Amino acid sequence: MKQQIILKFNIQFELWDVGGSKQNTFNWQQYYQNSSAIIFVVDASNLFDSKMDESKQCFKQVVENTNEKSKIIVFANKQDLPQAMNTSEIYELLDLSNVSNRDVKIFESSTKNQKGMLAGIQYLYASVTNQ
């Protein structure tokens, strides 16, 4: 598990890269249980059904086990690749129409060219500081 602390907009973000493999997901709760916000990253270019189903199950676990006041954003990552799913497709994949107890915002992103990353962090900042 990788930890990184970032100071941005006069606020401290403590980030944990916990990975999505099944062997890591049982540890997730200790990291997100008391979080103000969750950033969930989906590989939007991974069109294999098993990986997408795994993402859906992991996201469901996060939603069910976090405080309802926690803000959640989803980065639909790897938008620099032509086969990447758009936000509507990710919305369907994660079954967000059934998440009624909180607002979840999706951002198309690419860590390679930093597309969408700042917009997502700015949205989180505004959401968390307005609680």
Automatic annotation (TrEMBL):
InterPro entries: P-loop_NTPase, Small_GTP-bd, Small_GTPase_ARF, Small_GTPase_ARF/SAR
Record keyword Manganese present: no
Database matches in SMART domains: ARF
Origin organism lineage: Eukaryota, Metamonada, Diplomonadida, Hexamitidae, Hexamitinae
Keywords: GTP-binding, Nucleotide-binding
Organism: Hexamita inflata
Protein name as annotated: ADP-ribosylation_factor 1
Domain of life, source organism: Eukaryota
Nucleotide-binding recorded as keyword: yes
